[in-house]
Design a protein that fits this description.
By secondary structure, this protein is of the alpha+beta class. The protein has a domain at 86-229 and 250-373: Rhodopsin 7-helix transmembrane proteins (Rhopdopsin 7-helix transmembrane proteins, Up-down Bundle). It has helices at residues 80-86, 89-120, 126-153, 162-195, 206-228, 251-284, 288-291, 295-331, 339-349, 351-360, 364-373; strands at residues 16-19, 69-72, 75-77, 233-237, 240-243, 246-249. α2 packs antiparallel against α3 and α8 (295-331) packs antiparallel against α10.
Length: 388
């Protein structure tokens, strides 16, 4: 296969196919050397490879050197460079290795944490409720990781059908957005508990926390509905059936993902930054007669706040920032690099085992409950989890 392909007819409209690495956008675009000839708009299908750039909304004209041609019904061919990328070591071995690590660490930790929160802790304070739902989100996502691992280790050849591909694609976004929103809610709850302990008692009730969690689930599911309506699988020559690596290029998708990144990440990021910054400020600026009696507790709380904020930014900031930048770049005819996004996806998935380590196992009360649950040791004075 060569880098040059021929024009392909498409009677379904003026949609354009494009290649991308999970999810939904290709970030490895570079300068285009494509020349153009007069082709009627709406009669061309173009698969953008990882080495080319294009103006998303500009009508193709004077095109003589396309990158994807329709070789048979419902089958398309990619450039050799694109095929090598989809079947290369990074996609088929390195990334699955990280996902396997996340699966074997995240699954037992989140399952154990979920059982502890639901069965062993009787007093359901807001912090416990948020952590319970966060553990549930991480647990559900880890259960779907084997499908992603099989797909990439199978040289990017999806064998589970269109419905399963749409499910795992939507699940990734639902997991990411639900985790972000729950972390934001947790940061607000801790801010109220530290800065306004007495006035916030009426707001920080178990019932209201449950309502908030239901709203978080509804918002996260609503953000993934468009992904369930988009065709996610395409048959590619020399690769097989891709899942979410080749999509129809539409203007609405660019605006959709720009909105999702803004609403589900940048807004919660600002709230979380302000909340934890305020928590650290309040704890480190207490009067001397109050600070001396609980200096150890305050120090641990500050370290915990910094750690949680670091995980929030490390896991989800790269994915959403690159996604937003790429959408803006495509609308203006620019280009972006894709290898960074591959790393960002792995960082985002790392939250499934970092969440329990920070939120749950960072608490001595929670460790006692888990220890008694699996008979590591007998606890003499069991306590309930405090909402620090």
């Amino acid at each position: 296969m060569t880098e040059t392909s021929e024009t392909a007819e498409n009677s379904s409209g003026d949609m354009v196919l494009y290649l991308e690495q999970y999810p939904v956008i290709n970030f490895a675009l570079q300068e285009s050397t494509t020349s153009y000839s007069d082709i009627p708009p709406g009669n061309m299908i173009e698969l953008i490879t990882t080495s080319e750039a294009f103006n998303t909304f500009r009508e193709p004209s004077n095109c003589t050197d396309l990158n994807c041609n329709k070789t048979q019904q419902n089958s398309y061919s990619l450039s050799e460079k694109s095929v090598n990328f989809l079947k290369g070591l990074l996609v088929t071995r390195i990334m699955p290795s990280f996902y396997i690590i996340f699966l074997f660490i995240g699954l037992p930790l989140n399952a154990l944490a979920f059982v502890t929160f639901t069965c062993k802790i009787r007093e359901k304070k807001p912090a416990v409720i948020y952590m319970t739902h966060l553990a549930c989100v991480d647990l559900l996502f880890t259960l779907l990781l084997p499908l992603k691992i099989h797909y990439q280790m199978n040289a990017s050849d999806w064998v589970f059908g269109e419905a399963a591909c749409r499910l795992i694609t939507a699940a990734y976004y639902c997991y990411m957005y639900c985790s972000i929103l729950l972390m934001m809610c947790t940061s607000l709850d801790r801010l109220l508990a530290v800065a306004f302990p007495i006035p916030s008692l009426s707001w920080r009730s178990a019932r209201k926390a449950t309502y908030i969690c239901v709203l978080v689930w509804l918002l996260s599911l609503a953000g993934t509905v468009p992904l369930l309506t988009i065709t996610q699988t395409f048959k590619i020559k020399d690769v097989g059936v891709t899942c979410h690596d080749v999509l129809y290029q539409k203007e609405m998708y660019m605006y959709l993902f720009s909105f999702l990144s803004s609403f589900y990440f940048f807004l919660p990021l600002v709230v979380t930054l302000v909340s934890y910054s305020t928590i650290i400020y309040v704890l480190t600026n207490k009067p001397d007669h109050l600070a001396s009696s609980s200096s150890g507790m305050e120090r641990r709380a500050v370290i915990m706040a910094i750690a949680v904020l670091s995980v929030f930014v490390m896991c989800f900031a790269p994915t959403n920032i690159i996604l937003f930048y790429h959408c803006v770049s495509l609308t203006t005819g620019g280009s972006s690099e894709g290898q960074y996004y591959v790393i960002a996806l792995c960082l985002g998935s790392a939250s499934v085992f970092l969440d329990p380590l920070l939120y749950y196992y960072g608490s001595s009360q929670c460790r006692e409950k888990i220890s008694s649950l699996i008979w590591w040791r007998k606890t003499k004075n069991p306590t309930t989890l405090s909402n620090t």
